Structure formats: structure tokens, C-alpha cells
């Protein structure tokens, strides 16, 4: 079983509250979402493993059990073309749980007209593969978001 931790501080809101039908309908996969605190911060690795996909607005870490976890920093933020995001690792890097991955400012994302809400999704998983999914309440970068069986 893998523990998936929060990659940033904020308030857990659940996928259903994400203002994007692909995420809110769990079409990418099951998981939860975080409405982040609005100051500049750093998104950290929600699991230890290898960075297999890395974009300024999103990254995927695959853990030792082969579980891929997507962290998507905001909604429609791909349209910002990397503006306001700083990559702190490279694709292929091995990271430990909690290692810094991307520096960003959710308030700037919001000023650019995008939602700063961050889905954290278990890729290639079924909803029943996850347990203890946190969908409400304040969350810190070391708080458990869900367990993956």
C-alpha cells in the first residue's frame, strides 16, 4: 500500500469540486484536489519515486510499486506556457517524498484568470483502489491525501 501525501498546503476539496469536467468526472483517474494557499510556494513530490512526466504546470511521480501520481497545478494552466512556474527537478530524476518539484504562485495563476485548484490523481487506478481519500479540511504538505492499495 502506498501513502500519497499532499504536494502543497491548502484546503482539500475533492475532485468533484474541480472546475474542469475531465478532472471532476475522474476521467484522468480517482484522487482528490486542493485549493492552495495563495502565496508563492513550492509543490513537492507526493510520493517518492521517479519523475516520469514534467511540465511547468503538472508532473507525474511513479513510486516503487509502479503507482503514478499526477499533480496538476491549477486548471487550464498549460495556457500560461510556463509563465510563473519554475521547475526545480528534471524528468527522470529520482525524488524523495516531500522533495521540491515546482515553484509557483497560485495568486498569480488566479490573476491570469485561471483556477489555482490542484487535482492530485492516481493514474491508471480504479476508485476502489484508493481509501481514506481526503475531500475536505485544511491540509499541509505532509498530510495524507489518500492510500493506494
From TrEMBL:
GO annotation terms (biological process): phosphoenolpyruvate-dependent sugar phosphotransferase system
Keywords: Kinase, Phosphotransferase system, Sugar transport, Transferase, Transport
Residues covered by the PTS EIIA type-1 domain: 20-124
Lineage, top ranks: Bacteria, Bacillati, Actinomycetota, Actinomycetes, Kitasatosporales
GO MF annotations, alphabetized: kinase activity
Localization per record: Cytoplasm
Coarse class of the protein's main subcellular location: cytoplasm
PANTHER family hit by this protein: PTS SYSTEM GLUCOSE-SPECIFIC EIIA COMPONENT (PTHR45008:SF1)
Keyword Kinase (UniProt): yes
Entry GO CC: cytoplasm
Entry protein name: PTS system N-acetylglucosamine-specific IIA component
Amino acid at each position: 500500500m502506498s501513502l500519497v501525501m499532499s504536494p502543497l498546503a491548502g484546503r482539500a476539496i475533492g475532485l468533484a469540486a474541480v472546475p474542469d469536467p475531465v478532472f471532476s468526472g475522474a476521467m484522468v483517474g480517482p484522487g482528490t484536489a486542493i485549493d492552495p494557499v495563495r502565496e508563492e510556494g513550492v509543490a513537492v513530490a507526493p510520493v517518492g519515486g521517479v519523475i516520469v512526466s514534467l511540465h511547468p504546470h503538472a508532473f507525474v511521480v511513479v513510486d516503487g510499486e509502479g503507482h503514478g501520481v499526477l499533480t496538476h497545478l491549477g486548471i487550464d494552466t498549460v495556457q500560461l506556457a510556463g509563465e510563473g512556474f519554475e521547475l526545480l527537478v528534471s524528468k527522470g530524476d529520482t525524488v524523495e517524498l516531500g522533495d521540491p518539484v515546482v515553484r509557483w504562485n497560485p495568486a498569480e495563476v488566479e490573476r491570469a484568470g485561471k483556477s489555482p485548484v490542484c487535482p492530485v490523481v492516481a493514474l491508471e487506478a480504479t476508485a476502489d483502489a484508493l481509501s481514506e481519500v481526503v475531500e475536505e479540511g485544511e491540509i499541509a504538505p505532509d498530510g495524507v491525501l489518500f492510500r493506494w492499495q
